[in-house]
Amino acid sequence: MASDVSHDKRALRAELRERRRTRPAHVVDSANLGFTANLVELARELDARTIACYLSTSFEPDTREFLNWALADGRRVLLPIARQDGLLDWAEGDGETETEGLYGLPEPVGGILGPIAINDADLILIPASAVDTRGTRMGWGRGYFDRTLGSMEKCPPVFAVVFDDEVLDEVPREIHDAPVDGVVTPTKIIRFTR
Q1: 123-127/158-161 β-pairing
Q2: pLDDT tens-digit readout, 136-192
Q3: What are residue 160's DSSP bridge partners?
């Protein structure tokens, strides 16, 4: 059964990755404006003074304009740094200065704060390949955010950032998959009740 779920997740991730790869540039540009507006709205609504976010890759919804806004607005931004042991360290970032980290992912340049720095966050924004209408998040398969969220004693609101067509009726779920409180798309903010 578990291997069937893992297989289903791999197949769905491949489909979603290809969909993102072939999405027209003008559609992505328009979507990124919506992402920024909705992320700003969410941060203001929650009065999130410390925001844990991520530096988006070229195929993910762009978080950089939102990060620029957050920093200009005097908010503290924590960005993840992947470790070999499967945990995430965090660093305060400026949204611009970055280096290539583990797996070729963008990472902030700055003093490392360690895994427990995430406990200071008022809002956590995480990447996803898809989220279903019950709040089940499917990441990209390395489990970093699932481990991070699963280890937190008191977790602030967690929102995944995905395109509108990546909010699905159902995604395959395994026991370790951490749910999210909501999702931000280019056109809306969706909240889930748990």
Answers
A1: parallel
A2: 998 887 778 888 888 888 889 999 999 999 999 998 888 778 889 999 999 999 999
A3: 126, 183
Domain CATH for 185: 3.40.50.10420
* Parent domain of 125: 2-191
Instruction: Provide CB contacts within 8 A for 92, sequence distance 6+.
Output: 76, 77, 78, 79, 108, 110, 111, 113
Amino acid, res. 128: A
Number of structural domains the chain divides into: 1
Highest mean pLDDT among 38-52, 57-71, 115-129, 147-161: 38-52
| pLDDT given at position 146 | 85
CA atoms within 13 A on the CB side of 7: 4
How far apart CA 90 and CA 88 sit, in angstroms, is: 6
**Nearest residue to 43 via CA among 182, 194, 192:** 182
**Cα–Cα distance, 140 to 150 (Å, whole number):** 17
pLDDT confidence band for 101 (50 / 70 / 90)? confident
